[in-house]
Each structure stands twice: as C-alpha cells, then as structure tokens.
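Q: Could you fold this chain for me?
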Amino acid sequence: MAAETQKNNKPPKSGGKEAQPLIIAKTPAEAQRLKLERLMRNPDKPVPIPERPKQWNPRAPPEFVRDVMGSSAGAGSGEFHVYRHLRRREYQRQDFLDRMSVRQRKEIAYLDKVEQNKKDAEERTAKRRKKREKQKQKKLMAKKAKMDEKSKEEGNKSCTEDEKEDDDDDDDEEREAEDDAETPSFIMGNK
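A: Sure. Below is the predicted structure, expressed as structure tokens.
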C-alpha cells in the first residue's frame, strides 16, 4: 500500500511520461547533446526558435525642453540629479550615433572592398580566359597546319605515285618498242 501512494497520500499520475533521471551537463558539448536528445524525443513538436533581440535605440531627444537647468548655484538639491540623468542620456545618445556612423562607414568600406574584389576577380578571370582561348586557337592552328602538311604530303605522294606509275608505263612501253625494234639474236629459217 505504501508503494501505491506518494507524499501526502496522492496516487501517482498516469501521464504516460517516464520519469527522466536528472543529468547535469559538465561540458558545453554535453549540454548541447542533452538539448538535442530532448528535442529528438518528439520530432513532430515544433522547435521554438527565438527572434533576434532588437537593437537598442536611445530615446529621442525632446523637441522642446521646458525645464532648462544646469548644475549651477541656485538650483534645488533634487535638480542636480535630474540634470545628471538628462546629461547621461544625451551622452548615451551621442555615443550611439557615433557608433552607428562608424558601423555604417565600416559597412560601406566592406561593400566597396567586396565590389573591388569581385571586379579584380573578374579581370583576372577574363585575362586567364583570354589566355586559354589564345592557347586553344594556337593549338587549333598548329593542328590545322599539321593536317594541311599531311594532306600536301599525301597529295605529293599520290602525285609522285601517279607520276611513277606513268613513268613506269612509259618505260614499259619504251622497252617494248625497243624490244620490237631489236634484231633477233637467233634466226629461224634459211639464214
């Protein structure tokens, strides 16, 4: 009976969740692993992604200042604190504006540098492309010249072969004509 009841004699809840042991992360990697494990227990559940915090902006200066005061003599004892807070706020506003102008100058310089880098890279690429095209044209011209040379050689060979064949035919005809004109080395018949 003692096992069925918890503190204050309440029956255990049947929520369906198992009791998870308390694990304390000792390293940042372990903490991240624990968070991932907890997220992956129920993958259908949407994960809350926090919005980026808004940038702090100082309060705009008042358009019309009614209580013009300073830390000079004649002011009440509480006025100095009011003046001090106003002064602090104005200094914060001026510092913020200075930081924003520095940030904008850095962003402009960065964008100019990125643009210059893109331009330089494009120029280098164009130069290299031109060089590659020039080499390609040179190879094509060399190949074309080689092919022309081969075709000329083949043409010369075929011409020389034709000429040789013609010469051979002429030589054969001349030999036959000479053979016909020769006197026989032996005589058949009466003589």
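A (continued): The helical segments are 28-41, 79-181.
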